[in-house]
Design brief:
Blueprint: H1 7-34, H2 40-43, H3 48-63, H4 69-80, E1 83-87, E2 93-95, H5 103-110, H6 117-120, H7 123-127, H8 155-160, H9 174-181, E3 191-195, E4 200-206, E5 220-225, H10 237-277, H11 292-342, H12 348-375, E6 384-387, H13 388-399, E7 406-409, E8 415-418, H14 420-438, E9 444-451, E10 454-460, H15 495-505, E11 509-514, E12 520-527
Parallel strand pairs: 7-9
Antiparallel strand pairs: 1-2, 1-5, 3-4, 4-5, 6-8, 9-10, 10-12, 11-12
Helix pairs in contact: 1-10, 10-11, 11-12, 12-15, 13-14, 14-15
């Protein structure tokens, strides 16, 4: 059986697939436009944790002799689940347990910072750059003197300027000399590299300078991990997961009313069409929507009304026709009785044939009357609590007079909500149908019970059963499994249609299934009482 997926699930799946596609396309475009890479993970706020670790390690290394640096790096690395290495740009490993560095990492260590790097640094990276005296260096700071603003020079300001503060002519002032002749070295940026064979992630963080003398060359702390997460030190998935969950929840809450409205309207229309297919035309669909679903609901309501009129008219026509036929049939029966008394012996066989045909016509008219009356009930049937054992025994006694074996297995206390006469007529038609088709194959059984708050009543036999493709149609009016309509193979196809009409008038349902290895079982399901 082909699996079925609710429409709401399909809509949400398509929405999220579209969202994922948009995110991927946006990421590819941004990466191509702005050259995004792994460095992005350590260049912003995500790298502050690494920089904080580098600051702590730098402070501790400055207080310990060189012989203890390996132990310090190992202690910090074990705490975070990574391997820490201290390296120089000249491919020298100062401290750590690695013997050599991959070429990709060495290339990044030797990179020179771009001239405008000071403009791209965040606050913590600027504070890590110190001047010769140990004070924080100021980048792109224009020289200023007391009483002189180079950004807003006026003639009277030049008159107040003390020439002695500028030094001898042709000599750059001391602060300007330090700015231009001995500019501070540009700090190296943080970086992240992925290597293969085996796959490892390398994060590089320049160590800050804590003393007044800047060592040469500068050192870089390398954090090495087998995964991108690196114990939460290299990349923390938690904020991304929280953001993804928030987007998911907000998207579902945003789309849920629309999806729910569509699926509820479709479900209501589906249930209505199923009711119409079963012959219950009184169902109505909410057609207040102003979209295509509202138009569909209005069309279904119009269809139900038209079908109800057609079916009711058909049944009324059948009932009126059958009723009109009753009078001539009665007159024919009276005339036939007179003719039978006056006919000669040699003509009696013809009279018997006419009587048999007349009885068949009378039976057909009675079936039509029963079917039309059961289907033309304008008011809901008044249901009451019915003892099923009484109805089952009464039907078995009446239908068993022909010599058929009918077994009744019904609990004395079992009751159901039904109209007694309609339920008895339905049960009698089922028993009569079983006797007609399978009376010689074994007993006909009437069994009743309860399950899931419902009461069921079944009539089963050991006959040939019904082809599987005909099980859904045997309750249709005038439908017969055999193409012939002779009296030898049954009636005119109204018996089971009357059963369905009577059971539905009692608020129940009827269904049929083939038994194993042979036989047919018809099941009536009613409300328990």
């Amino acid at each position: 059986m082909k699996p079925r997926f609710p429409l709401s699930v399909k809509i949400l799946l398509w929405f999220f697939l579209n969202l994922i596609l948009l995110v991927l396309v946006g990421f590819v475009l941004l990466r191509g436009q702005f050259r995004f890479g792994l460095d992005m993970l350590v260049s912003g706020p995500g790298g502050e944790k690494l920089q904080g670790l580098a600051n702590v390690i730098s402070a501790e290394l400055g207080e310990r002799p060189r012989e203890e640096w390996n132990a310090i790096l190992k202690r910090f690395g074990d705490g975070y689940g990574v391997q820490l290495v201290l390296a120089r740009p000249d491919e020298t490993i100062v401290a750590g347990e690695l013997a050599e560095l991959p070429r990709a990492v060495l290339d990044r260590l030797r990179e020179r910072p771009s001239p405008n790097m000071s403009q791209q640094l965040n606050g913590s990276q600027r504070d890590n750059v110190r001047g010769p005296g140990g004070e924080p260096e100021r980048f792109n700071e224009r020289p200023r003197h007391e009483g002189f603003d180079p950004d807003n020079v006026r003639p009277r300001d030049l008159e107040r300027l003390d020439p002695s503060r500028l030094g001898p002519p042709g000599q750059i002032p001391p602060r300007m000399d330090r700015q231009f002749n001995n500019p501070p070295p540009q700090p190296r940026p943080r970086f992240m590299v992925r290597t293969t064979n085996p796959v490892k992630y390398w994060a590089g963080i320049p160590l800050p300078q804590n003393g007044p003398q800047r060592p040469q060359p500068r050192l870089t702390l390398l954090a090495v991990s087998d995964s991108l997460r690196g114990g939460g030190l290299l990349f923390d998935f938690t904020p991304w997961l929280i953001a993804a969950a928030a987007v998911l929840v907000i998207s579902v809450l945003f789309w849920l009313p629309l999806v729910r409205g569509i699926t509820c309207a479709i479900s209501q229309t589906t249930r209505a069409t199923e009711e119409i297919a079963e012959g219950r035309f009184g169902v109505l669909v909410n057609d207040k929507r102003s979209d295509e679903l509202g138009v569909l609901a209005a069309a279904v309501n119009r269809m139900a009304a038209r079908l109800s009129g057609f079916v009711s008219g058909q049944k009324r026509f059948l009932g009126d026709t059958a009723h009109e036929l009753c009078a001539p049939i009665a007159r024919m029966q009276i005339a036939l009785g007179i003719l039978e008394e006056r006919a000669e012996e040699k003509h009696q066989s013809y009279v018997d044939d006419v009587r048999e045909e007349l009885q068949h016509i009378s039976h057909l008219v009675n079936e039509l009357l029963s079917f039309s009356k059961a289907g033309l009930r304008q008011q809901p049937t008044a249901l009451q609590s019915v003892a099923l054992v009484e109805i089952a025994r009464r039907v078995a006694e009446r239908e068993g007079r022909s010599g058929a074996v009918i077994e009744v297995s019904v609990d004395e206390n079992l009751r159901a909500q039904a109209e007694p006469e309609l339920l008895a007529r339905a049960l009698a038609n089922l028993v009569r149908n079983s006797i007609r088709y399978a009376g010689e194959s074994g007993p006909v059984r009437i069994v009743a019970g309860s399950e899931y708050g419902k009461t069921f009543l079944t009539v089963s036999d050991n006959g040939p059963g019904v082809p599987e493709e005909a099980l859904q149609r045997i309750f249709d009016p005038f439908y017969r499994v055999e193409e012939s309509r002779s009296r030898d193979t049954g009636g005119v196809g109204l018996g089971l249609a009357i059963v369905k009409t009577c059971v539905e008038a009692c608020g129940g349902t009827v269904s049929a299934r083939n038994r194993e290895p042979n036989g047919l079982e018809v099941r009536i399901l009613l409300q328990a009482s």
